[in-house]
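Hey, quick one: can you model this chain's 3D structure?
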Amino acid sequence: MAATVTGGAGAARAEAAPPASPVVTRAALDPSLVAGRGADVGFLEQEAEHATTNGTLIGPGRTAYTLASEASGRRAVSLAPGQFVEFTLPAATNAITVRYSIPDAPTGGGITAPLDVSVGRRPAQTMTLTSQYAWLYNQYPFSNDPTAGLLHPDWWITECSCVPAATTPTPMITRPFRPHHFYDEQRMLLGRTYPAGSVLRLAVPAGSVAPWTVIDLLDSELVAAPRVVPVAANVLAFGADPTGRRDSAGAFDRAVAFARRTKLKVYLPPGTYQVNRHIVVDDVTIEGAGNWYTIVKGREVALDTPAPDGSVHTGVGFYGRPASAGGSRNVHLSGFAIEGDVRERIDTDQVNGVGGAMSHSSVDGLYLHHTKVGLWFDGPMTDLRVTNNVIVDQIADGLNFHTGVTNSVVRNNFVRNSGDDGLAMWSEKTGNAGNIIDRNTVQSPVLANGIAVYGGTDNTVSRNLIADPVREGSAIQVGSRFGAEPFTGHLWITENTTARAGTYELNWNIGLGAVWFYALDRSIDADIQVVGDHYLDNTYNAIMLVSDWPVKDRYSITNVHFRDIRVDGAGTSVVSARTAGSASFANVDARNVGAVGVNNCGSFHFTPAGSEFSLTDLGGNDSGWLAPWLLPNTITCDDRPPVVAPPPPSTW
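Sure thing. Here's the predicted structure for all 652 residues.
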């Protein structure tokens, strides 16, 4: 259903079209296409492009640095002052989340602007939107300044196909250079419960300072009453301020110390608590009243001198002790929100929502917003359960298991608008092993991948839903890179669904696959089984295997096995091979493929014996994409085949 355009900027409520039947989606897809995959969340997603509006539909579009490319489903609605979008609520609702974008200030730093929220004929509430946590520019690690020149003029850039500092005459680079990270989201409790069928209007006041307001989607839910923990170390008893006017870090520390001595839980009642540094946790359980009611919020604070780990800021976060100090154990965090204040990417900063090392621990039901990384764990550590969390609007990763994390589970989490990998396992220096990333939803990572595995042993990525990666990444990446330890044992990638993946790799100037195997630091030769995945509406390739050009004659990718795969739409090919090695295929069905089924470049030597990459047909590969003449290693190399946009995915 397309957006309904009913009038100009001055259109009154009476001029709106009749309420549209609610269209509920998951990652902008019909829920029937993703049944049993992704996180089971408490809210219902409605895309603005399916609602009633007198605004302007933007998209679809997948070109990076555009508002459409970062929107869920690659479409949204733009409202001028005086315009609105109306959603018919699909179920009883007392709380909403709005994903939106408004302009940056001319010199950066963001603006604020109002959005009126009303249901039926009840008076509107005002949601104050901000772009203070959006709008990054330039080259990695990015800038908040839209007027800045190149951060790295000695780097090759696609825009001029040159190294600017080494080019005469010096090329003119448009400013702002590479704007991105446009969207943010806000939550609102409505103060009462509205029944299904109620019409909720989001309206931009006529006098708004924002010349445009883009509404991407509405999440609506019925939030339960606050949770009460009567027998606990209540932080109010230790001096915490639930109004947020005074810093409560010391009160939290006292409550944690008391709870450890008395073997009680720590309880965070409803309220907003100001905490501007880390709360160190070990052998303690901390429970909030629910992440809509208990908010732990803090400013980013500049340190007088850098910390030993290189941090130049601190901020709100719950941290286990470092692994070098023995780590923490038996930590259980649940039922509260962490609202950070991170507006720039400084990789040495420990300004994450949850961090440190936590063994035999759990993190459940948190809402993590505006921190650098939602959860970043530095091992070695073991037996961590990360479940049922909402991780949104991060400057970098949603979650990262970094260095020696073992026998741990990431399940039923929802990640949206991460500034780097949504969920990652990075085996730097010490391998991760025995971990499971299962039944999570990852949407719209602005940079890099939905789920990334960098080395490790016997890990599993299963039943996830990953949609709309924007640039220089894939839905799922298996990467020998970033100094990771080798892949050993097995890696299971099973029953995942990806949508609108396979992005443009800025530095290579080529399209990637929805699943991307990348041999940069070493060969990949562990037993990798890709079983039951569905790759829907791929921008370029569904499957890509590549070694970087300088190492293409040293490293290869072998022992990868695809079985029971469905590819519904590929802008270019089902398989793109740009490496030496091999893979097998059984029951891989494909339709709506834009180019040749296999784009086989191998190591680009084009030998009389064929490509350096061979494919084995184990049977059942329907639709003719893996024709006999392609086997085992026919050269079919087209470096940059034209893209043929596929039709929307449908029931198989």
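One thing worth noting: The first strand starts at residue 4 and ends at 5.
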